[in-house]
Structure formats: C-alpha cells, structure tokens
Design a protein that fits this description.
This protein is α/β, with parallel strands linked by helices. It contains 14 helices and 13 strands. It folds into two domains: 254 residues, 3-Layer(aba) Sandwich (Carbamate kinase), CATH 3.40.1160; 92 residues, Roll (Archaeosine Trna-guanine Transglycosylase, Chain: A, domain 4). Strands 3-4-2-1-5-7-8-6 form an eight-stranded mixed beta sheet, sandwiched between helices. It has a five-stranded mixed beta sheet with strand order 10-9-11-12-13, sandwiched between helices.
C-alpha cells in the first residue's frame, strides 16, 4: 500500500544554487514525485520560492524590507505556480495552488476546511502545491518558514512521511560549513536533543534549525521525518526506497491524537492560565483535568471554548480549551469545585480545562 508523503522544498534547492528558480531542478523533482505516484504514493508538495521568483523579476536588492518581500511574493507566486505546472506537464500531473496563512490553521473550523480540501485534491489525483501566504503574513515572513508549515500539513493530511529537502546532506554533529570534522547524524530517536545546527542563508527563513524543529514536531505526531539533500538527483526516490540517506527522525510510538496535535502545534492561544506546581504535575504526570483550585492567575481576555496556554513557573507546558471565561475564572481561581456555583450562580463545568481537550507540550 502506498504512503501519503509531504515533500518540502526550500528556495535554496529550487534555485539550484543560482539567483532565480531553476527549471531543470523543478523538472527533476517533478519527475521524482511522478515516480513516487507511479508506485502508489500520494504526494503533497510544500514549496517555497515565491519571494525568490518575485525578487528575480523585480530585480530587488539582496536583503529587501518586509514590504518589498511581500511585493515580491505577490509577483512571484504566479510565476512559481507556472513553473511547477510546466515541470509537471511532461508526466501529465495536475497541480493545485494552496496558499495558507497562520490564521487558516489557528482556527479549528478553518483547519478542518483546509484538511477537507487537501484530501479531496489527493483523492482526485492532484498534487497540492502548498505555500505560506507571504503577501499578507507579515509575521510569517519575519519569523516563520515553510519547514514549520510542512510539519503542520503532514498532520493535516495524515501523512506517513515528511521529507524536508535542503542543500545539506542532513543533520550534522556541527555545522559542516564551519567544522570539516562534523559528521552526519543518520538517525534521531524520539524526544532526543540534536546537536548544534547551521544558520539560514540570505534568502532562506528556515536553516537547519527550523528543519529540526519541524522534523521533531512531525515525529511527535507519529510521522517519520527525513532531512536530506534535494540538490542531489534521486534523493527523494532513495528515501522512499528506504536507502540510508539524510537524517531520519523516528516517530513517537504513542503520538498525540489528531485533536491534540492541532492544540499543540496549530492553535493560537487567546490567553494564559497560570497554575501551581501541583496542578502541573496532575496534568502532565497523571493525565488529570485542570480544576479551579489549581489556578493561581490569568492574563488576557478569553471566552469559553477558546484555546488557552497553561503556564507554571513562567513556562508554557500545555494548551487546552477552557470551559470558563476569563471574567468568571478570575472569580473562582483557587476555589474548590463545590464552591463554583455559589460564586457564579451556575456551574458550566467541573473542570476549567478537561483532560480530553488538553495537549501537553513536549518541546
């Protein structure tokens, strides 16, 4: 039975080492994806390159402002899609543009709508080409990257495998560009802390560090992740054939459930609930629900059903859906469950956050 694969390709790979999109590189990658599909695999392509293509067309300087990057993305996105359509024309594969912003995945309903669309495209035999909507996503350009997006997409479509194609052979014990003695790490066990990694190049927002974060996030969701060299022909095929290329991040034996994956990785908390050490231990060590008695304080306004961060000692350790508004929680924090109705006049729930609506963060 074929696998469902998410393949992420960065700008450094798509440029082929040049200043703009490399048609030869795109055709090579399209050929490898076509080969994977011929073996029964479904493929979602997460592609950077819009800013790169727009920068080339607009003849922008090496390090433009955020506003110019947005303009470059607006100009370059159509050029990027035309390039992928041309690359997939020979194997006669239909592609679809899917632009996502953080808001599309932060909200549960929009997250599920995006999932439905992607699964429908795969069922129709289409290769979705996913990119961050850099034209409007200022924060994503400054701090985000398509590595993190690819990990979210892997969870979104229930992928079996995430392949992050970069311009390095994989993760090394040190930055190989600075230390020639650095050696390639073939495998990273679940929950392991990898060694030091290199920084991003001038046009990449990712770098190896963000690929490690994305791979570990995918692994927490039960997805095997591989970081490998997309500059070399045949890399994707070798990964699918099980050959020892790149760095493999082994998936967790007991991954987070899908709803908890959304809470942990994609949701956007509206506020923070500060809890005591006993409550944190009950939530993380005993899989209990959060009760009002364990709440010490809160910040920001939120309503019932909103996602909130759970914090102890200044560190966010979990996220969940609150049953109480910030106004009501302020009145009942520290109280026993039996006292809630007396104070509020009603009791919406026994728990502030029920354990079924809670995701403990491993990072």
């Amino acid at each position: 039975m074929g696998k469902r694969i998410v393949v992420k390709v960065g700008s450094g790979v798509l440029s082929g080492g040049g200043e703009g999109l490399s048609g030869a590189t795109l055709r090579r990658l399209a050929g490898e994806i076509a080969k994977a599909r011929s073996h029964g695999h479904e493929v979602v392509l997460v592609s950077s390159g819009a800013i790169l293509a727009g920068r080339e067309r607009l003849k922008l300087e090496k390090r433009p402002s955020v506003q110019l990057k947005q303009a470059a993305a607006a100009v370059g996105q159509s050029r990027l899609m035309r390039a992928w359509e041309a690359a997939f024309a020979r194997p006669k594969i239909t592609v679809a543009q899917v632009l996502l912003s953080g808001d599309d995945l932060h909200h549960r309903e929009r997250y599920l709508n995006a999932r439905s669309t992607m699964l429908t495209l795969l069922r129709l035999g289409v290769v979705p080409v996913v990119n961050e909507n850099d034209t409007v996503a200022v924060e994503e350009i400054k701090f985000g990257d398509n590595d993190g997006l690819s990990a979210l997409v892997a969870g979104l479509v229930d992928a079996n495998l995430l392949v992050l194609l970069t311009d390095q052979d994989g993760l090394y014990t040190d930055d190989p560009r600075e230390n020639p003695s650095a050696t390639l790490i073939a495998e990273v066990a679940p929950g392991a802390t990898p060694a030091r990694v290199g920084k991003a190049g001038p046009w990449g927002t990712g770098g190896m560090e963000s690929k490690v974060r994305a791979a570990r996030q995918a692994a927490e969701g039960g997805v095997l992740a591989v970081v490998a060299n997309g500059m070399k022909a045949g890399t994707l095929t070798a990964v699918l054939d099980g050959e020892p290329v790149g760095t493999r991040f082994l998936p967790e034996d007991k991954p987070l459930a899908k709803r908890r994956q959304w809470l942990a990785f994609a949701s956007h908390p509206k506020g923070r609930i500060i809890v005591d050490a006993g409550a944190r231990e009950a939530l993380t060590g005993k899989a209990r629900s959060l009760l009002a008695s364990g709440v010490k304080g809160l910040s920001s306004a939120f309503e019932p059903g909103d996602v909130v961060s759970l914090v102890e000692g200044g560190v966010e350790f979990a996220r969940g859906l609150t049953n109480f508004s910030s106004r009501d929680l302020e009145k009942i924090k520290g109280l026993k469950t039996s006292e809630i109705e007396r104070v509020l006049g009603n009791k919406p729930a026994d728990e502030v956050v029920h354990r079924d609506n809670l995701a403990v963060l491993k990072r």
